[in-house]
Design brief:
- By secondary structure, the chain is of the alpha/beta class.
- The protein folds into two domains: 261 residues, Spore Coat Polysaccharide Biosynthesis Protein SpsA, Chain A (Alpha-Beta Complex); 81 residues, no CATH class.
- 32% of the residues lie in helices and 25% in strands.
- The chain has a five-stranded mixed β-barrel with strand order 6-9-7-8-10.
- A hairpin with a 6-residue loop joins strand 7 and strand 8.
- Helix 1 packs across helix 4 and helix 6 crosses helix 7.
């Protein structure tokens, strides 16, 4: 059967001050009147139904997650609360092992919980193709066609077409590049953004873990329940699924996406999605503006007056106000680190 793992362990620091430790990006209503994670689950339910959807989440978000899944009819026992954040390899490996125990023929799709996908029908069509390919032994990733030289994404270089139309072998993964290299990637039509979406047979992934991480595979063999997983959790390696498996396996293949996608990795990315006025402004809430261009203003409950501003992000909450140049939105993460260093925990 087909199964889905939704990863909800991210902290969403680039969306400070709206995103906080207790309520990160996946629980915010950024693009609609529903949290991002609910949109993700509703989208994938059409592939598998609720009973085959599993969620990996930080234990501090239990209240948010349980509220979400109860509305969407996801079994509570399908939620795995990570005892300690360990990047993406450990939750994917553990849930894949538990799914395999119940269904040895399982095909699993892994998705982040906080991405924006506009054309749902196209997305589902690509996923159906990916499930079919995964049943033949591929570990499939969905490649996003780059639209600009983005330095906030990883890239994937394709090699040659595989034995199925529209499915390409992968030559190499690249970490987030400097702008000069990103521009080079854009000029070469053989590069795609890494969207962090993977589809594979559970048996296939476990076999690759055995090959590349034998110590972790020995631990996984002992895991037959969530309780056992939590007892052994501290011994599992803390790394990404990309670095642990995807960059090393010879089974990896890529299907290009033909749907609109954004990982909403910054305020700038959100601003690109929201409607704008004739001056390129996206202004929400109780505001007055005179003569500004290309600004994103989300003042929250505050009244905001702006005059003659250009290329700025303004985001307000009850206890904080962010004012940021649009070309510096990736540095919001650094700002959060500074808050940690100054021990301003009430703002985190």
């Amino acid at each position: 059967m087909n199964h889905v793992i939704v990863l909800s362990g991210g902290s969403g620091t680039r969306f400070w001050p709206l995103s906080r430790k207790s309520q990160p990006k996946q629980f915010l209503n950024l693009c609609s009147d529903r949290p991002m994670i609910e949109q993700t689950i509703q989208r994938v339910k059409k592939l598998t139904g609720g009973k085959n959807i599993y969620i990996a989440a930080n234990k501090i978000h239990q209240k948010n997650i349980r509220s979400c899944v109860s509305k969407l009819k996801i079994p509570q026992e399908n939620i795995f609360f990570e005892p300690l954040a360990k990047n993406t390899f450990a939750p994917i490996a553990v849930l894949s092992k538990l799914i395999y125990e119940a269904d040895p023929q399982a095909v699993i799709a892994v998705f982040p919980s906080d991405h924006y996908i506009k054309e749902e029908n196209k997305f589902l069509k690509v996923l159906k193709q990916a499930f079919i390919a995964a049943k033949t032994g591929y570990i499939v990733t969905i490649g996003i066609t780059p639209t600009q030289p983005e330095t906030g994404y990883g890239y994937i270089k394709i090699a040659q077409q595989a034995n199925r139309p529209g499915i390409y072998k992968v030559k190499k993964f690249f970490e987030k590049p400097e702008i000069k290299l990103a521009k080079k990637f854009i000029r070469d039509k053989g590069y795609y953004w890494n969207g962090g979406m993977f589809i594979f047979k559970a048996e296939c992934l476990l076999g690759e873990i055995k090959k590349f991480l034998p110590s972790d595979y020995c631990l996984l063999k002992k895991i037959d329940s969530q309780e056992k997983a939590k007892k052994l959790w501290s011994k599992l390696v803390s790394t990404s699924i990309d670095y642990a498996i995807m960059e090393k396996t010879k089974r990896i293949a890529l299907i290009p996406a033909d749907f609109s996608w954004s990982d909403l990795g910054s305020w700038l990315a959100l601003g690109d999605l929201l409607p704008k006025d004739e001056q390129g402004n996206c202004i929400r809430g109780d505001t007055i503006d005179i003569g500004s261009t290309n600004i994103l203003a989300l003042p929250g409950s505050r009244f905001l007056a702006t005059i003659g501003l250009k290329d700025l992000i303004i985001v307000g909450t009850k206890d904080a106000l962010l004012i940021c140049a649009k070309d510096k939105t990736q540095d919001v993460k650094k700002l959060v680190e500074s808050l940690k260093n100054k021990k301003l925990s009430k703002l985190l």
